[in-house]
């Protein structure tokens, strides 16, 4: 009986640890999404403030962003 109680206690401990780790994973995913958004914003800002030498790559990035926005709008309209 004591072994059964120990096992139940261990299961409870492990369940708590799993719950804590899942929370940490969720927070990490949110942080990753936040950092990706910041990165996209920085790239967008870079597109707006380009030098003459970077004009072609800036146009390419801007076109990509426009296509991405168009896709999002299309998804919202569905």
Q: Can you offer a commentary on this structure?
A:
By secondary structure, this protein is an all-alpha fold. The protein has one domain (2-77). The protein is 90% helix and 0% strand. The longest helix has 47 residues, at 2-48. The chain is elongated, with a radius of gyration of 24 Å. The protein starts with a helix and ends with a helix.
Feature tags:
78 residues, mainly alpha, 2 helices, elongated
**Count of separate DSSP helical elements:** 2
Order of helices and strands: HH
Structural category is: mainly alpha
Radius of gyration: 24 Å
Number-wise, the strands total 0
Oligomer: single chain
Averaged pLDDT, please? Answer: 83
How much strand?
A: under 5%
Molecular shape: elongated
* Helix amount: over 70%
Total domains: 1
């Amino acid at each position: 009986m004591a072994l059964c109680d120990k096992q139940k206690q261990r299961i409870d401990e492990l369940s708590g640890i799993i719950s804590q780790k899942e929370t940490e994973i969720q927070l990490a995913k949110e942080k990753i999404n936040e950092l990706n958004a910041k990165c996209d914003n920085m790239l967008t800002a870079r597109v707006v403030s380009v030098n003459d030498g970077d004009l072609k790559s800036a146009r390419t990035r801007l076109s990509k962003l426009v296509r991405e926005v168009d896709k999002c709008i299309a998804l919202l309209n569905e």
